[in-house]
Protein backbone atom coordinates (compact mmCIF):
# COMPACT_ATOMS: atom_id res chain seq x y z
CA UNK A 1 0.00 0.00 0.00
CA UNK A 2 2.77 2.46 0.94
CA UNK A 3 4.87 1.94 -2.26
CA UNK A 4 1.66 2.30 -4.34
CA UNK A 5 0.88 5.62 -2.65
CA UNK A 6 4.48 6.74 -3.21
CA UNK A 7 4.27 5.93 -6.94
CA UNK A 8 0.96 7.79 -7.27
CA UNK A 9 2.45 10.80 -5.49
CA UNK A 10 5.56 10.74 -7.72
CA UNK A 11 3.28 10.45 -10.77
CA UNK A 12 1.45 13.56 -9.65
CA UNK A 13 4.64 15.59 -9.23
CA UNK A 14 6.16 14.40 -12.51
CA UNK A 15 2.89 15.08 -14.36
CA UNK A 16 2.64 18.48 -12.67
CA UNK A 17 6.16 19.50 -13.67
CA UNK A 18 5.69 18.54 -17.33
CA UNK A 19 2.22 20.16 -17.38
CA UNK A 20 3.61 23.43 -15.96
CA UNK A 21 6.23 23.52 -18.70
CA UNK A 22 3.67 22.79 -21.41
CA UNK A 23 1.34 25.49 -20.05
CA UNK A 24 4.18 28.02 -20.01
CA UNK A 25 5.03 27.11 -23.60
CA UNK A 26 1.36 27.42 -24.60
CA UNK A 27 1.10 30.87 -22.98
CA UNK A 28 4.19 31.99 -24.91
CA UNK A 29 2.81 30.59 -28.18
CA UNK A 30 -0.57 32.31 -27.53
CA UNK A 31 1.16 35.67 -26.92
CA UNK A 32 3.23 35.26 -30.09
CA UNK A 33 0.10 34.24 -32.06
CA UNK A 34 -1.63 37.44 -30.86
CA UNK A 35 1.40 39.48 -31.97
CA UNK A 36 1.41 37.80 -35.39
CA UNK A 37 -2.34 38.46 -35.75
CA UNK A 38 -1.65 42.16 -35.03
CA UNK A 39 1.11 42.18 -37.67
CA UNK A 40 -1.33 40.54 -40.11
CA UNK A 41 -3.97 43.23 -39.43
CA UNK A 42 -1.36 45.98 -39.82
CA UNK A 43 -0.25 44.43 -43.12
CA UNK A 44 -3.88 44.44 -44.33
CA UNK A 45 -4.31 48.13 -43.48
CA UNK A 46 -1.01 48.97 -45.21
CA UNK A 47 -2.08 47.07 -48.34
CA UNK A 48 -5.31 49.13 -48.34
CA UNK A 49 -3.30 52.34 -47.96
CA UNK A 50 -0.98 51.35 -50.81
CA UNK A 51 -3.83 50.38 -53.17
CA UNK A 52 -5.88 53.54 -52.49
CA UNK A 53 -5.99 55.72 -55.68
CA UNK A 54 -4.15 59.05 -55.46
CA UNK A 55 -6.43 61.88 -54.25
CA UNK A 56 -8.22 63.79 -57.08
CA UNK A 57 -7.59 67.53 -57.22
CA UNK A 58 -10.32 69.60 -55.57
CA UNK A 59 -12.65 71.78 -57.72
CA UNK A 60 -10.94 75.06 -56.90
CA UNK A 61 -7.59 73.40 -57.81
CA UNK A 62 -9.08 72.48 -61.22
CA UNK A 63 -10.18 76.10 -61.69
CA UNK A 64 -6.67 77.33 -60.86
CA UNK A 65 -5.18 74.89 -63.39
CA UNK A 66 -7.57 76.16 -66.11
CA UNK A 67 -6.66 79.77 -65.29
CA UNK A 68 -2.94 78.94 -65.48
CA UNK A 69 -3.40 77.13 -68.82
CA UNK A 70 -5.29 80.16 -70.16
CA UNK A 71 -2.46 82.50 -69.04
CA UNK A 72 0.18 80.28 -70.73
CA UNK A 73 -1.89 80.22 -73.94
CA UNK A 74 -2.25 84.05 -73.89
CA UNK A 75 1.52 84.49 -73.45
CA UNK A 76 2.19 82.10 -76.33
CA UNK A 77 -0.22 83.99 -78.64
CA UNK A 78 1.46 87.28 -77.69
CA UNK A 79 4.87 85.84 -78.62
CA UNK A 80 3.58 84.85 -82.09
CA UNK B 1 14.01 34.50 -51.99
CA UNK B 2 16.16 34.88 -48.88
CA UNK B 3 13.01 35.26 -46.76
CA UNK B 4 11.48 32.17 -48.34
CA UNK B 5 14.64 30.17 -47.60
CA UNK B 6 14.70 31.54 -44.07
CA UNK B 7 11.10 30.49 -43.39
CA UNK B 8 11.79 27.00 -44.77
CA UNK B 9 14.80 26.72 -42.45
CA UNK B 10 12.74 27.86 -39.46
CA UNK B 11 10.07 25.31 -40.35
CA UNK B 12 12.69 22.57 -40.61
CA UNK B 13 14.20 23.63 -37.31
CA UNK B 14 10.75 23.48 -35.68
CA UNK B 15 10.11 20.00 -37.09
CA UNK B 16 13.56 18.82 -35.91
CA UNK B 17 12.82 20.28 -32.45
CA UNK B 18 9.53 18.39 -32.13
CA UNK B 19 11.14 15.16 -33.41
CA UNK B 20 14.13 15.34 -31.03
CA UNK B 21 11.98 16.33 -28.02
CA UNK B 22 9.48 13.51 -28.66
CA UNK B 23 12.35 11.01 -29.09
CA UNK B 24 14.12 12.31 -25.97
CA UNK B 25 11.08 12.12 -23.69
CA UNK B 26 10.03 8.74 -25.15
CA UNK B 27 13.52 7.46 -24.27
CA UNK B 28 13.39 9.10 -20.83
CA UNK B 29 10.03 7.56 -19.92
CA UNK B 30 10.13 4.21 -21.71
CA UNK B 31 13.81 3.26 -22.14
CA UNK B 32 15.72 4.87 -19.26
CA UNK B 33 15.63 2.83 -16.05
CA UNK B 34 14.00 4.20 -12.93
CA UNK B 35 16.45 5.76 -10.50
CA UNK B 36 17.16 3.36 -7.62
CA UNK B 37 17.44 6.18 -5.10
CA UNK B 38 14.74 8.66 -6.15
CA UNK B 39 12.33 6.45 -8.09
CA UNK B 40 9.90 7.79 -10.68
CA UNK B 41 10.19 11.44 -9.54
CA UNK B 42 13.71 11.51 -11.05
CA UNK B 43 11.98 11.75 -14.49
CA UNK B 44 11.54 15.48 -13.75
CA UNK B 45 15.30 15.82 -14.20
CA UNK B 46 14.99 15.09 -17.94
CA UNK B 47 13.02 18.34 -18.14
CA UNK B 48 14.46 20.44 -15.32
CA UNK B 49 18.21 20.00 -15.99
CA UNK B 50 18.09 20.57 -19.79
CA UNK B 51 15.94 23.67 -19.17
CA UNK B 52 18.46 25.04 -16.64
CA UNK B 53 21.49 24.23 -18.82
CA UNK B 54 19.95 25.82 -21.93
CA UNK B 55 18.75 28.91 -19.99
CA UNK B 56 22.28 29.50 -18.59
CA UNK B 57 23.90 28.94 -22.01
CA UNK B 58 21.30 31.31 -23.53
CA UNK B 59 22.37 34.07 -21.18
CA UNK B 60 25.99 33.53 -22.24
CA UNK B 61 24.91 33.65 -25.91
CA UNK B 62 23.16 36.97 -25.13
CA UNK B 63 26.41 38.31 -23.63
CA UNK B 64 28.30 37.33 -26.81
CA UNK B 65 25.73 39.14 -28.98
CA UNK B 66 25.96 42.15 -26.66
CA UNK B 67 29.76 42.26 -27.10
CA UNK B 68 29.27 42.13 -30.89
CA UNK B 69 26.72 44.93 -30.63
CA UNK B 70 29.09 47.18 -28.68
CA UNK B 71 31.91 46.44 -31.12
CA UNK B 72 29.97 46.94 -34.35
CA UNK B 73 26.99 49.10 -33.31
CA UNK B 74 24.78 46.85 -35.48
CA UNK B 75 21.23 46.83 -34.01
CA UNK B 76 20.66 43.24 -35.16
CA UNK B 77 23.09 42.01 -32.46
CA UNK B 78 21.16 44.00 -29.86
CA UNK B 79 17.92 42.37 -31.04
CA UNK B 80 19.55 38.92 -30.80
CA UNK B 81 20.82 39.65 -27.28
CA UNK B 82 17.37 40.89 -26.23
CA UNK B 83 15.54 37.84 -27.62
CA UNK B 84 18.13 35.41 -26.17
CA UNK B 85 17.63 36.93 -22.72
CA UNK B 86 13.85 36.90 -23.16
CA UNK B 87 13.65 33.19 -24.04
CA UNK B 88 16.19 32.29 -21.33
CA UNK B 89 14.14 34.16 -18.72
CA UNK B 90 11.08 32.10 -19.75
CA UNK B 91 13.16 28.92 -19.51
CA UNK B 92 14.55 30.12 -16.16
CA UNK B 93 11.02 30.62 -14.84
CA UNK B 94 10.21 27.05 -15.92
CA UNK B 95 13.39 25.84 -14.13
CA UNK B 96 12.26 27.46 -10.87
CA UNK B 97 8.74 25.99 -11.16
CA UNK B 98 9.82 22.45 -12.11
CA UNK B 99 12.59 22.56 -9.48
CA UNK B 100 10.09 23.57 -6.79
CA UNK B 101 7.78 20.70 -7.80
CA UNK B 102 10.68 18.25 -7.67
CA UNK B 103 11.81 19.64 -4.28
CA UNK B 104 8.30 19.23 -2.86
CA UNK B 105 8.10 15.64 -4.07
CA UNK B 106 11.63 14.73 -3.03
CA UNK B 107 12.49 16.88 0.01
CA UNK B 108 8.95 17.69 1.16
CA UNK B 109 9.43 21.47 0.78
CA UNK B 110 8.85 23.78 -2.20
CA UNK B 111 12.09 25.72 -1.56
CA UNK B 112 15.31 25.24 0.42
CA UNK B 113 17.16 28.47 1.22
CA UNK B 114 20.27 26.61 2.45
CA UNK B 115 20.88 25.03 -0.96
CA UNK B 116 23.35 27.18 -2.97
CA UNK B 117 22.24 25.82 -6.36
CA UNK B 118 18.66 27.00 -5.88
CA UNK B 119 19.46 30.37 -4.33
CA UNK B 120 22.18 31.25 -6.82
CA UNK B 121 19.94 30.36 -9.76
CA UNK B 122 17.20 32.52 -8.26
CA UNK B 123 19.68 35.43 -7.92
CA UNK B 124 20.74 35.09 -11.56
CA UNK B 125 17.09 34.83 -12.66
CA UNK B 126 16.12 37.95 -10.69
CA UNK B 127 19.16 39.76 -12.09
CA UNK B 128 17.92 39.09 -15.62
CA UNK B 129 14.37 40.02 -14.63
CA UNK B 130 15.68 43.57 -14.04
CA UNK B 131 16.85 43.73 -17.68
CA UNK B 132 13.38 44.80 -18.89
CA UNK B 133 12.78 47.76 -16.53
CA UNK B 134 16.36 48.92 -17.16
CA UNK B 135 15.96 48.71 -20.91
CA UNK B 136 12.57 50.39 -21.15
CA UNK B 137 13.43 53.11 -18.63
CA UNK B 138 15.65 54.66 -21.35
CA UNK B 139 13.79 56.42 -24.16
CA UNK B 140 16.65 57.10 -26.57
CA UNK B 141 16.96 53.97 -28.77
CA UNK B 142 20.77 54.06 -29.16
CA UNK B 143 21.42 54.63 -25.48
CA UNK B 144 18.86 51.96 -24.60
CA UNK B 145 20.65 49.41 -26.81
CA UNK B 146 24.11 50.36 -25.48
CA UNK B 147 23.09 50.20 -21.80
CA UNK B 148 21.22 46.91 -22.39
CA UNK B 149 24.37 45.45 -23.99
CA UNK B 150 26.54 46.52 -21.05
CA UNK B 151 24.00 44.90 -18.71
CA UNK B 152 23.92 41.67 -20.79
CA UNK B 153 27.74 41.42 -20.67
CA UNK B 154 27.98 42.13 -16.92
CA UNK B 155 25.16 39.74 -16.04
CA UNK B 156 26.56 37.15 -18.46
CA UNK B 157 29.83 37.15 -16.52
CA UNK B 158 27.88 36.07 -13.44
CA UNK B 159 26.64 32.89 -15.09
CA UNK B 160 29.94 30.91 -15.23
CA UNK B 161 31.02 32.44 -11.90
CA UNK B 162 27.76 31.31 -10.37
CA UNK B 163 28.19 27.83 -11.86
CA UNK B 164 31.70 27.56 -10.38
CA UNK B 165 30.63 28.89 -6.98
CA UNK B 166 27.86 26.31 -6.79
CA UNK B 167 30.26 23.50 -7.74
CA UNK B 168 32.69 24.57 -5.01
CA UNK B 169 30.02 25.09 -2.34
CA UNK B 170 29.63 22.53 0.45
CA UNK B 171 27.48 20.81 1.63
CA UNK B 172 25.31 19.92 -1.34
CA UNK B 173 21.93 18.26 -1.23
CA UNK B 174 20.97 19.16 -4.78
CA UNK B 175 21.95 16.17 -6.99
CA UNK B 176 24.65 16.59 -9.65
CA UNK B 177 23.91 15.36 -13.18
CA UNK B 178 27.52 15.56 -14.38
CA UNK B 179 30.15 14.90 -11.74
CA UNK B 180 33.44 13.05 -11.48
CA UNK B 181 32.07 10.96 -8.62
CA UNK B 182 29.22 8.90 -10.04
CA UNK B 183 27.13 10.92 -12.50
CA UNK B 184 24.39 9.39 -14.63
CA UNK B 185 24.85 5.82 -15.90
CA UNK B 186 24.95 5.42 -19.71
CA UNK B 187 21.39 4.09 -19.83
CA UNK B 188 20.19 7.43 -18.39
CA UNK B 189 22.86 9.66 -19.91
CA UNK B 190 21.85 9.01 -23.54
CA UNK B 191 18.14 9.92 -23.05
CA UNK B 192 19.25 12.92 -21.01
CA UNK B 193 21.55 14.13 -23.80
CA UNK B 194 18.76 13.71 -26.38
CA UNK B 195 16.43 15.77 -24.12
CA UNK B 196 19.19 18.39 -23.75
CA UNK B 197 19.63 18.56 -27.54
CA UNK B 198 15.84 18.87 -27.96
CA UNK B 199 15.66 21.69 -25.42
CA UNK B 200 18.57 23.52 -27.14
CA UNK B 201 16.71 23.16 -30.45
CA UNK B 202 13.51 24.47 -28.82
CA UNK B 203 15.40 27.51 -27.50
CA UNK B 204 16.90 28.16 -30.95
CA UNK B 205 13.52 27.80 -32.67
CA UNK B 206 11.82 30.21 -30.26
CA UNK B 207 14.66 32.75 -30.59
CA UNK B 208 14.54 32.55 -34.38
CA UNK B 209 10.73 32.79 -34.43
CA UNK B 210 10.69 35.84 -32.16
CA UNK B 211 13.49 37.54 -34.13
CA UNK B 212 11.49 37.02 -37.35
CA UNK B 213 8.37 38.47 -35.70
CA UNK B 214 10.34 41.50 -34.47
CA UNK B 215 11.89 42.04 -37.92
CA UNK B 216 8.44 41.82 -39.58
CA UNK B 217 7.02 44.34 -37.10
CA UNK B 218 9.94 46.75 -37.69
CA UNK B 219 9.57 46.43 -41.49
CA UNK B 220 5.85 47.18 -41.24
CA UNK B 221 6.56 50.35 -39.26
CA UNK B 222 9.06 51.46 -41.95
CA UNK B 223 6.57 50.78 -44.76
CA UNK B 224 3.81 52.67 -42.90
CA UNK B 225 6.09 55.69 -42.41
CA UNK B 226 7.09 55.64 -46.11
CA UNK B 227 3.47 55.32 -47.30
CA UNK B 228 2.23 58.06 -45.00
CA UNK B 229 5.01 60.36 -46.23
CA UNK B 230 4.04 59.86 -49.89
CA UNK B 231 0.25 60.06 -49.29
Q: How would you describe this protein?
A:
The complex is a heterodimer of chains A (80) and B (231). Helices cover 89% and strands 0% of the residues of chain A. Chain A is an all-alpha fold and 80 residues long. Chain B is mostly helical. Chain B is 79% helix and 0% strand. Chain B has helices at 2-31, 45-72, 75-106, 116-129, 131-136, 141-168, 186-230. In chain B, α1 (2-31) packs antiparallel against α7. The two termini of chain B are 29 Å apart. The relative contact order of chain B is 0.16.
Percent strand of chain B? under 5%
Instruction: Give the CA-CA distance, first to last residue of chain B.
Output: 29 Å
Shape of chain A: rod-shaped
- Which stretches of chain B are low in confidence, meaning pLDDT under 50 for 5 or more residues running? none
Largest interface between protein chains, with number of residues from each side: A-B, 25 and 29 residues
Q: Specify the structural class of chain A.
A: mainly alpha
The proportion of residues forming helix of chain B, as a percent range, comes to over 70%
Described by strand count, sense and barrel closure, the largest sheet of chain B is:
none
Query: If helices are DSSP runs of H or I spanning 4 or more residues, what is the number of helices of chain A?
Result: 2
Defining key terms:
heterodimer, A: 80 residues, 2 helices, B: 231 residues, mainly alpha, 7 helices, globular
Amino acid sequence: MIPLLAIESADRYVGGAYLVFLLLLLVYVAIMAAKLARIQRELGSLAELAERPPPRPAEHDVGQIHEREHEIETVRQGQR
Amino acid sequence: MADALKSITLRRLAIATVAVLVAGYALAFFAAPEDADQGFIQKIFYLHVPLATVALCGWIVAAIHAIRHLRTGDPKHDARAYVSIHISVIFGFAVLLTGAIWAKGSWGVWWEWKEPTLVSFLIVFLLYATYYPLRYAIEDRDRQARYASVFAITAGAFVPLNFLAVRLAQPLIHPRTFSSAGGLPDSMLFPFLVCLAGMALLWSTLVWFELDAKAASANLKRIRRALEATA
